[in-house]
Automatic annotation (TrEMBL):
<dbReference type="GO" id="GO:0004131">
    <property type="term" value="F:cytosine deaminase activity"/>
</dbReference>
<dbReference type="InterPro" id="IPR011059">
    <property type="entry name" value="Metal-dep_hydrolase_composite"/>
</dbReference>
<protein>
    <submittedName>
        <fullName>Cytosine deaminase</fullName>
        <ecNumber>3.5.4.1</ecNumber>
    </submittedName>
</protein>
<feature type="domain" description="Amidohydrolase 3">
    <location>
        <begin position="85"/>
        <end position="387"/>
    </location>
</feature>
<dbReference type="Pfam" id="PF07969">
    <property type="entry name" value="Amidohydro_3"/>
</dbReference>
<dbReference type="InterPro" id="IPR032466">
    <property type="entry name" value="Metal_Hydrolase"/>
</dbReference>
<dbReference type="InterPro" id="IPR052349">
    <property type="entry name" value="Metallo-hydrolase_Enzymes"/>
</dbReference>
<keyword id="KW-0378">Hydrolase</keyword>
<dbReference type="InterPro" id="IPR013108">
    <property type="entry name" value="Amidohydro_3"/>
</dbReference>
Length: 398
């Protein structure tokens, strides 16, 4: 099966036609329709590789009205959300996740890695719910499930048992926040042990506060164990002296780790106890990239006690990377696109023959315009199939 996308523009501003063959990009250039071939006229839209979301808590999405964060910080969010988690309402979790995924796909996101809670309060209810959602949306978006596991009653043995149970319930990878536990090193060892036993990677929350510096310890154990580790947040790295940040970044690179920065949620949560100049809630992106670390960016939380806003749109995250992270638009786009896909273990994609036909066409002048304006006009292809189409009309009488 072939389909011709005609009259698009690449990020370099040059016009391009794209022929999709099954689920791959077959050829690019100035192309003529084949006999009987379906043709989509892009009308000069900007065509980019589809976006990817490497870190989002779909089980928590849209719960801001159910659990008010009284203090506005991470501790307040965790305390308020505990009541929601204890409800174990699988159907409600699935409904909220589907609502978020519809927004992500409409925005041009065809791969999502979600962090789903499991622990003493919620068991594996949310993971079971998301496993069913994954089946329902498989034709529209690649959904990966990370079990965000807290240490339950029962200590290390109970922790390992719950990690196994989460994988059996449908999780693809294991996660958690070991350094928020009573015995951080033991929690990390349990995660590594089960990951090795089951042949999965770890996607961990690391250093979600400015006074916690544990990324170097995670890197050391990742290198020793051989387990592939993705570290999210890592906000304290962004406030360390340059020399120390470079040293830790080098250790992360040596361990083969990747890092996911989460600007929206961490800008919301971090630094509330500082009355003067607020520190930025981003990791040391430039130091990590200079060391050769793959750095992606994600939404983390969407309209819940951890982050009261969010549109499930990677271009919103890219805009924050430009503004708060001082990234050039091309790098910001990569961090929510090809680099995010690489962190997720997927082909990076791109506008090249043989790449996966994961594409988004936007009504934007260029890459900078797309990030600045986040246009509503978008067409989205997943595995070579058009899965979302939003066409906007604006009428201004001057």
């Amino acid at each position: 099966m072939t389909e011709l996308l005609r009259g698009g523009r690449g990020a370099d501003g040059q016009g391009v036609d794209i022929r999709i063959v099954d689920d791959l990009i077959g050829e690019l250039g100035t192309l003529t329709p084949l006999p009987g071939e379906a043709v989509v006229d892009l009308d000069g839209r900007l065509v980019l590789p589809a976006f990817a979301e490497p870190h989002v808590h779909l089980d928590k999405a849209f719960t801001a009205g159910l659990a008010a964060n009284q203090t506005g910080d991470l501790q307040g969010a965790m305390a308020s959300y505990s009541a929601v988690a204890s409800m174990r309402q699988g159907d409600a979790i699935a409904d909220r996740a589907m609502r978020a995924l519809r927004l992500f796909v409409a925005a041009g996101t065809t791969a999502v890695r979600c962090q789903i809670g499991a622990g003493r309060l919620s068991g594996v209810t949310a993971i079971e719910a998301l496993a069913k959602v994954r089946e329902q949306v498989s034709a529209y978006v690649d959904l990966q499930i990370v079990a965000h596991v807290g240490v339950p009653d029962g200590g290390a043995a109970g922790h390992r048992a719950l990690l196994h149970r989460a994988l059996d319930a449908g999780a693809d990878q294991l996660g958690g926040n070991p350094f928020s536990e009573d015995d951080p090193d033991l929690a990390l060892e349990s995660c590594l042990e089960v990951a090795l036993d089951r042949g999965v990677e770890l996607d961990l929350h690391v250093d979600e506060s400015f006074d916690s510096v544990t990324l170097d310890r995670v890197a050391a154990r990742a290198l020793e164990s051989g387990v592939r580790v993705v570290a999210a947040h890592c906000v304290s790295l962004g406030v360390l002296p340059d020399s120390q940040a470079k040293e830790i970044a080098a250790a992360v690179a040596a361990a083969g780790m990747s890092v996911v920065t989460l600007p929206m949620t961490n800008l919301f949560l971090q630094g509330r106890d500082v009355l003067s100049a607020k520190p930025r809630g981003l990791t040391a992106i430039d130091a990590l990239r200079a060391a050769g670390v793959q750095v992606a960016a994600g939404s983390d939380n969407v309209r819940d006690p951890f982050n009261l806003v969010g549109r499930c749109d990677p271009l919103e995250i890219a805009s924050l990377l430009v503004t708060a992270g001082h990234q050039q638009p091309v790098h910001a786009a990569g961090m929510v696109g090809s680099e995010a896909r690489t962190v997720m273990g997927l082909p990076a994609g791109g506008l090249v023959a043989g790449a996966p036909a994961e594409l988004v066409a936007l009504g934007a002048d260029d890459l900078g315009d797309a990030i600045a304006r986040a246009p509503g006009d978008r067409l989205v292809w997943h595995r070579g199939q058009l899965v979302a189409q939003t066409v906007t009309t604006t009428d201004v009488p001057f």
